[in-house]
Specification:
The complex is a heterodimer of chains A (195) and B (704). Chain A has 195 residues and is mainly beta. Chain A has one domain. Chain A has one helix and eleven strands. In chain A, the strands form three sheets. In chain A, strands 1-11-10-9-6 form a five-stranded antiparallel sheet. A four-stranded antiparallel sheet of chain A has the order 3-2-4-5, with no helix packed on it. Chain A has a two-stranded antiparallel sheet with strand order 7-8. Chain A starts with a helix and ends in an 8-residue tail after the last strand. Chain B is mainly beta. Chain B has seven helices and 41 strands. Chain B has a 22-stranded antiparallel barrel. Chain B has a five-stranded mixed sheet with strand order 5-10-11-8-9. A four-stranded mixed sheet of chain B has the order 25-26-30-29. In chain B, a hairpin with a 7-residue loop joins β3 and β4. The longest helix of chain B has 10 residues. The chains are: A mainly beta (195), B mainly beta (704). At the A-B interface, β8 and β10 of A face β29, β30, β33 and β34 of B.
Chain lengths: 195, 704
């Protein structure tokens, strides 16, 4: 279990590193390079969702769940996006398969939305969804070769890949929290190109 | 049904059995392959026989222990059915044959199907060892004779028939306070023969992890009774009536966690199995004989679990399944030179479960025909069966087999046949809500109803995404095409060498899948559909050698490849990726990295050595079974983001079972036997908790 704690601190360190980079870059005029980032979020297994915004590159407070500050949110292994039944935003998603790294251009159309709580843009169900579920250990692991392309509320494009899911150390029968690690490339200039 | 062999077998060495002077041969008479009695050497199909003497020599009390030591058979359990963390294994263990799951092997007792599969598995502990005359294992599809489920093959348990007056008794005691008491009696009058059998078998089970509440294997008690009457009206006609009953009661104790509170529950699982069988046989002419038979069976499984404090009922899972099967068979001609066999029957199947909305029926009728003939040195069998059913399209299952004696010692055999497996009740009608984990499993026929009910309750919003799953899509039977090609070579009477190449192509396999949405309470839905195609292929080699009357050795080896064809196709298209567990970088999986289906051993084999010492009036036997490494999904928490076997870390290491027994006659009527199973003390407590480790046993056999 110490392993989990170590990775938690290293994640924090990485996050701080990226945040500081970003500030430096913003001071330069005219150049808006894509933001590549690996991040983690701590999701509840049964409580409220944990919200995340690509623009700021960080977790958004629960109090801001009715705003457009966030793009996606996770509870246990269910991913919602900020649109229609899930939030006031207009975040659409396309689920892609293939190589994340060599994926260069976001599609112009075809984005789907959370039209109802029972009709979410991202399939988070047990066998056809974005993860493999092991009924023996109740563990989740993101399917390799699957990733998501987001079109955010302010029309920015992001490609995002879920990397791992690990329960936080727990006592008792059920874990309360699960750490999801993911990486994404955010294109701040509004173009569909990720390079 | 037929008079015995018109044509003598090519070779038929008879040796004295080591127990009670029964005769054993290398060329047994079997019935499973053709539904008529034939010698193995006359049958163009791969068939293997385990004699009662061979079973007795192992000292085993459980059928699964006998079968798992045989060539090409592995124990397989449903991955959800392993007794993880003190939870009971509700399904039992079955055997994998030619690389196919237990659901694809038909289990027969005296030619009639055993019903009551849980998750595709018939719990073999329902069949008592001690009353078995021989076990016939027919490999390759046998649907042309037996209908659904006989895709990998058939295991036919032939029980003892009334013989001369005798009485026998066996007591067995082994590790874990396991006690077996068996009694049987034969009564013979001029026209009637009676046979009675009774057995009680119980064990305390065992516990691998004291820190986990409940035992790994809970204590159980098992009773089996059977009675048979064989009555000869005259030389030409006879009647057989038999009845069978078995029950197993196993304790349950585990923890549940309502609202995150730990609560202990306990209770019993009771399995009951009853059947009756009547058959009238009549030979109306030298060349014409018929039989009329009636079989009825019921299987019931009731698991009741109560909360320890207060005694409130926590859960009751009940299942009752019955089959009534009348059948008429007509034989015209001479066996095996030229025999026409045809039959017609009806299956009236009924199932009731706490997990189904209502009682369901599955009625079907069938017609089968077979011609077997010998032309010079060539044996031929051609057969076909037609199954008509209300729930799925009618099935036509042909089979063709040929054997040719190149020399009296060398027989080349080839057969091809199709098989099918009807969608089972669970896949059609299950309606089970697991409220603890918040999902629902719904049979294909029920899906539309369940989803409309959800919409009506406002738990799902009506729309195209939901509607897609509401148009009734009927499940098709799973299909197989099986080919077996082999050579039997008998060398100097004492050595028989057999090689058999097999290939099975299964299509339309029914798998569960999750619907891509949750309802408003976050409940997920699973259903069943025909999804994938797999194949298994390999070679099985057996060598049987008798050094002399008293000393024999046999060995076998199986090489197996079993793969999912859809996975191969996706790999070829570069659609399957793996994620490095450390760097999290995903890369394509190469076709060559795919190791095949989980739980299949590429290499396996067995060796049996039997020695009988005449002066000492005793025998010794050693049995070895090797099972090579096999894949396990999610082994030790390993995951690489795909559900296929492509990494060395996904393999469970191979293992060897070594069993030995010593048998000694004491006087005329008593025999003492002692032995050790799993001498090497192999265990894998996490992934194979059904393997206890070293087991010592002592048997006393008495026969008058």
């Amino acid at each position: 279990m110490t392993k989990i704690k170590l990775s938690f601190y290293s994640i924090v360190a990485i996050t701080l590193f990226f945040l500081s980079c970003k500030k430096d870059e913003q001071t330069k005029e005219d150049v808006t390079p894509v933001v590549s980032k690996t991040d983690s979020l701590r999701a509840s297994t049964s409580g409220h969702f944990t919200f995340y915004g690509f623009k700021e590159g960080k977790v958004v407070e629960v109090g801001d769940s009715a705003t457009t500050k966030w793009d996606f949110a996770i509870r246990l292994a269910t991913i919602i996006v900020n649109s229609q039944s899930s939030g006031p935003g207009n975040v659409g998603v396309i689920t892609e398969s293939g190589s994340f790294d060599s994926y260069t251009t976001a599609p112009e159309s075809g984005y789907v939305y959370d039209t109802a709580s029972s009709k979410l843009a991202i399939n988070s169900t047990m066998s056809t969804g974005w993860f493999n579920y092991d009924p023996g250990t109740h563990s989740f692991s993101p399917k390799a070769g699957m990733f998501f392309v987001f079109k955010t509320t302010d029309n920015k494009y992001v490609k995002m890949e879920m990397l791992s899911a690990r329960y936080e150390d727990f006592v008792g029968p059920m874990p309360s929290f699960i750490w999801h690690k993911f990486r994404y490339v955010y294109q701040p200039d509004g173009s569909r190109e990720f390079e | 049904m037929m008079r015995t062999m018109a044509q003598p077998a090519a070779v038929n060495p008879v040796v004295q059995d080591t127990f009670f002077n029964r005769e054993a041969t290398l060329d047994e008479v079997v019935i499973t392959a053709t539904r008529t009695e034939n010698r193995v050497s006359n049958i163009p199909l791969p068939i293997q026989v385990i004699s009662s003497a061979a079973i007795r020599q192992t000292g085993s009390q459980r059928l699964i222990d006998v079968l798992q030591m045989q060539s090409g058979l592995m124990v397989a359990s449903n991955p959800l059915g392993t007794a993880l963390q003190g939870y009971p294994n509700p399904f039992g263990d079955g055997v994998q044959m030619q690389g196919l799951d237990p659901a694809y092997t038909l289990i027969l007792i005296d030619g009639e199907p055993v019903t009551g599969r849980n998750a595709g598995i018939i719990n073999l502990d329902r069949i008592a060892v001690g009353n078995i005359r021989q076990i016939e294992i027919l490999k390759g599809p046998a649907t042309s004779l037996y209908g659904s489920d006989a895709l990998a093959g058939v295991i036919n348990i032939i029980t003892n028939s009334p013989g001369k007056n005798d009485f026998s008794f066996q007591s067995h005691y082994s590790t874990n306070n396991t006690l077996g008491l068996t009694a049987s009696a034969n009564l013979k009058t001029k026209k009637a023969g009676w046979q009675f059998f009774g057995k009680r078998y119980s064990s305390d089970g065992y516990d691998f992890d004291k820190d986990i509440y409940g035992q790994t294997v809970d204590p159980f008690t098992n009773y089996s009774f059977s009675a048979k009457l064989h009555y000869d009206f005259n030389e030409k006609s006879n009647l057989l009536v038999s009845a069978r009953y078995s029950s197993e009661k196993q304790k349950n104790a585990y923890l549940i966690y309502p609202d995150n509170n730990e609560v202990a529950v306990g209770g019993n699982t009771v399995e009951e199995d009853k059947s009756i069988f009547l058959r009238f046989k009549n030979r109306v002419h030298d060349l014409i004989a018929y039989s009329v038979q009636f079989y009825a069976t019921n299987y019931a499984n009731n698991a009741k679990v109560f909360i320890k404090q207060g005694g409130d009922l926590f859960d009751h899972i009940g299942l009752s399944q019955s089959l009534i099967k009348p059948e008429i068979q007509l034989n015209i001609g001479r066996n095996p030179n030229s025999l026409w066999m045809t039959g017609v029957g009806y299956n009236w199947e009924k199932i009731n479960s706490t997990r189904y909305d209502q009682e369901h029926q599955l009625n079907s009728w069938y017609l089968f025909g077979q011609k077997q003939w010998i032309l010079g040195q060539t044996n031929l069998i051609a057969g076909v069966r037609y199954d008509n059913n209300i729930l799925y399209p009618a099935q036509l299952s042909p089979k063709l087999a040929i054997a040719h004696k190149i020399t009296p010692e060398i027989i080349v055999k080839a057969s091809i046949g199709t098989g099918f497996k009807a969608p089972d009740f669970r896949q059609q009608f299950l309606n089970f809500d697991n409220t603890m984990v918040n999902y629902s499993i719904v049979g294909a026929k029920e899906l539309s109803n369940v989803l409309s009910a959800q919409i009506q309750k406002g738990l799902l919003d009506d729309g195209e995404e939901i509607r897609k799953y509401m148009t009734a899509v009927d499940l098709e039977p799973e299909h197989s095409l099986g080919i077996n090609v082999g050579v039997d070579y008998t060398f100097k009477v004492n050595t028989v060498f057999k090689i058999n190449l097999f290939r099975n192509d299964i299509s339309n396999m029914i798998e569960s899948y999750s619907l891509p949405f949750y309802n408003k309470n976050g409940m997920g839905f699973f259903s069943y559909k025909n999804i994938n195609k797999v194949f298994t292929q390999g070679v099985e080699i057996t060598i049987n050698h008798r050094f002399n009357k008293h000393f024999s050795v046999n060995g076998s080896y199986q090489y197996l490849i079993a793969k999912d064809k859809d996975v191969i196709r996706e790999l070829k298209h570069g659609e399957i990726y793996k994620r490095d567990p450390v760097t999290h970088v995903s890369t394509k999986v190469a076709v060559s990295d795919y190791k095949g289906l989980f739980n299949r051993s590429r290499n396996s084999g067995n060796v049996n050595v039997r020695y009988y010492h005449e002066r000492w009036k005793g025998s010794a036997a050693v049995f070895v079974k090797y099972r090579g490494r096999f894949g396990y999904n999610g082994l030790d928490g390993f995951t690489d983001g795909n559900d296929i076997l492509n990494d060395e870390k996904e393999f469970i290491k191979g293992y060897t079972f070594l069993n030995g027994s010593i048998t000694k006659h004491i006087g005329e009527h008593i025999e003492a036997q002692g032995g050790v199973e799993n001498i090497l003390n192999y265990t894998n407590k996490v992934y194979m908790p059904n393997i206890y480790g070293r087991i010592y046993f002592l048997n006393i056999n008495i026969k008058f």
